[in-house]
Amino acid sequence: MLGGISIWQLLIVLGIIILIFGTKKLRNVGTDLGGAVKGFKQAVSEEEKDDKDKAQAKVAHDEQSNTYDVRAEEKAADKVEDPEERK
Questions:
Q1: What Cα–Cα distance (Å) separates residue 10 from each residue in 6, 13, 15, 17, 22?
Q2: Cα separation, 64 vs 72, whole angstroms
Q3: How far is it, in rounded angstroms, from Cα 49 to Cα 59?
């Protein structure tokens, strides 16, 4: 029993659907549905891959920016010399 619907009732409904649409149309619908699901899964996996690539690129960019920041701070520190050293 599935929520008040018995197996026999489901089989009768399935038989009526097969009589109305025929097995060829149902097979085509199944193929189209399977292709759509496959395309959806592929798109989701590609988007996840793109998200990972973007995240890795952002981390690399942030690391590179931090390197530049450290170098800029070192240069600024070098420019600010002790006035007694100049004499």
A1: 7, 5, 9, 11, 17
A2: 12
A3: 15
Please state, in angstroms and rounded to a whole number, the distance separating the CA atoms of residues 61 and 65: 6
Tens of pLDDT, residue by residue over 38-71, are: 999 999 888 888 888 888 887 777 766 666 555 6
Q: What is the CA radius of gyration of the chain?
A: 33
d(CA 12, CA 1): 15
Q: Which DSSP string do the residues of 4-28 spell out, in sequence order?
A: TB-HHHHHHHHHHHHHHHHHHHHHH
Conformational region of residue 22, where left means phi above 0, alpha means psi within -120 to 50, and beta covers everything else: left
**Which runs of consecutive H residues, i.e. helices, occur in the chain?**
7-79, 83-86
